[in-house]
Write a structure and sequence with these properties.
Elements (H helix, E strand, L loop, with lengths): L1 H7 L2 H21 L6 H22 L2 H21 L13 E2 L5 E2 L1 H20 L10 H20 L3 H17 L4 H22 L2 H11 L10 H13 L10 H4 L11 H34 L3 H25 L17 H19 L9
Helix pairs in contact: 2-12, 2-14, 3-14, 4-5, 4-6, 5-6, 5-7, 5-13, 5-14, 6-7, 7-13, 10-12, 12-13, 12-14, 13-14
Amino acid sequence: MKKKFLKNVEWGILICCIILLIIGLIAIYSSTNDTEHDEFKKQILWTLVSIPITIIVIFIDYNLIAKISPIFYGIFLALLVGVLFTPEVNGAHSWFKLNETLAFQPSEFAKIFIIIFLASMIVKMQKKGKKEINKIWKLAIILLIIAVPLGLIVLQPDYGTATAFIVATVAMLFVSGINKKYIITSILLVVITVPALYMFILPEHAKARIDVFLNPNLDPRGSGYNIIQSKLAIGAGQLLGMGVLKGNQTQLGYLYPKTTDFIFSVIGEEMGFVVSSLVIVVYVFLITKAVYVSKTAKDDLGSYIAIGIVGIFFFHMIENIGMTMGLLPITGVPLPFVSYGGSSLITNFICIGLLLNISGRRQKTIFVE
């Protein structure tokens, strides 16, 4: 059984993670040269912590994890409420500070268990057929499950993570067979409500980010500073980069925060277009393999969990790389496996563990026609 499980596992997904992790560690090492590589050492520690956690996740049947997911859903709702009463860090109440150097971000871990719980609820509602999801009251329950944590995350505020939840939910509902009329209605609602949100609901600092995104030169020494410096860094890297530890924007401190939000800018400046393109290609390969895992999963539960993870990885990749190039607004979304951060790294490795878990338990032969 174990031999068959290991044979079915999509090891290409793990290889992608290792490549991204290595590139990320090199970039973090270079960008922490002025702080005695403090964050680099921590990232190494978080990597070592992630390894046994990933192994455990791989070999515990995801159906069992789904059965206990309501407990974790409740726990993380409580944590998302509690974190709102913590001291503000970088304009948000997103972290429980455990000590002077260690912090815990519940919204990162919540992504996993809320997706699993959501997937299990969709499966339960589809016992009589996939069309059951189109019943208004059942769809309302599904949306309520995601709306509660989503609202709490918006209150922090953490719009990047909130959007990741939305993308994952949309992907799961799409795969579950939701009627096209709901998709069209949702698109129309977005078109109508986005301008209203901008005019009447978004706080001033969020509006400023959007305005500066459209024209960074409106505030070149304030809100537009990071975008301008990021674009300069990426452009300066040209084909092969300026060399590790040799990037002007990186080493002189013009990029901030260079180990998290703008780590791709560090890669672009010091490793150039070639390595930057490699990062994007590896992400595309990883996401493609994850979609294949969703398509070939042995049951709907595995399929929905996998596509939810795809939604998270896809959004994080597009948003982080897009914002460093000035193509998307800055939201503070980390680049999976590359950006510094313990909560983010462990969460991403748990997601990979789940993908390998689902792929190992499928029976490939039943999909051959």
